[in-house]
Amino acid sequence: MLHAHLTTLHVVAQILDIFAQQPEQEAALLAGSGITTADLTCANTRITRTQELQVCANGLRERSDLGLELGRRMHISAYGLVGYAALSSATFGDAWQLMLQYPALLGTYFKLDLLIEGELAWVCASDYQHRPELEVFNLEMCLASLKLMCDDLLGQALPLSAAQFRYGEPDYSARYGTSFACPLHFNAERNAFAFHASWLAQPLPLADAVTHRDMLSRCRKQNTEFATRHAWLTRIRQLLSEQLSAPPGLEQLAQQMHCSPRTLRRHLQALGTHYQELLDELRFEQAKTLLGQEDWPICRIAEHLGFSETASFRHAFQRWSGVAPSRFRA
Asked: Is the pTM value of this prediction over 0.70?
C-alpha cells in the first residue's frame, strides 16, 4: 500500500534487529504491513510509509522507548545519497543547508528547520501529519537520529545546549540522556534541540569537493524523480478518494488521468504498487476514520466505501488490519 513517498526497508530492518533476540516476534512485528520475509532479503525492495508505520506501531507495543533506540542506530549512512553528500560538504553549516534543501531524500515525517536565535542554532521538527498515536515515537526517532547525524558529520559528539519537547515527560525519560546530554524541557512550545551556532562554521573532516559535486548532482536527479512520482501519486489518490463509494476501474481512472491504461499501469508499477492495492489503502484509511465515529454503523461504512456486502467489507478489513472492524472500533 502507498502513502506519499516510497522508502527503503532500513527502519523495518533496524526494528527487527532490535528484537533479534526474540525471533518468534518477527511475524508479529510484520503483521498487517504486507511485508514478507522474502521482501527482507531483496536489496531493491521499496515499501511505503503506511507499511513502515505499521511495523513501527507493532514494535512500539513491545517497547515504549523504541523511537529513541531507533534514532540511536540511524547513522548518516542510512540516508543514502543525501547522507554522503552531507558528509562531503565543506562545513557543518553547508551540510545542514543541503539536508534541508532535500527533505524528501531524508524521508522524515516532519518539516525540519534550522533557526538561529542569538548564540544558539535550533534544529526544529514540526508539522507532523501522520498517525497521531505515533507522533511521539516518530519525533524521538527523528531528533535522536538528527543528533547522531551531527556527530557523524563532525567526527565527534556535538555538545548540546538544550532540548525541548512539546509532550509530557515519559516514564523512560532517563534514557533521553544518551542522545540529548543537555537540559531537557518537556511540555515546551516546540520539538527541537540547540547547539552553539559557531559550530556551523566548523570544517568537516570528510569534506571533498569532487565527491560532493558528484553526490549533489545525484541528489538533484533523485529528488526530481521523487517529485514526479509524488505528483502522480497525489493525483491518483485524489481521484480515487473522491469516488470511493463507486470507484472507477483502471481504464476509467486512466481516462481521468489523461493517459492510456498501459501508461497508468507502468506508472503504478514504478511506484511499487497496483490499482487494487492503492484502492485498498484508501478504503482502509477511510474505514479507520469512520470506525472512530459511533454514529456510523458498519453496514453504512461498507456501503460508503463501495462494498456491495457488509461481509465483504469485514473480510477486507480483517485482511488489512489483522482484526475485525468491530474489534478495531472497541
From this structure: yes
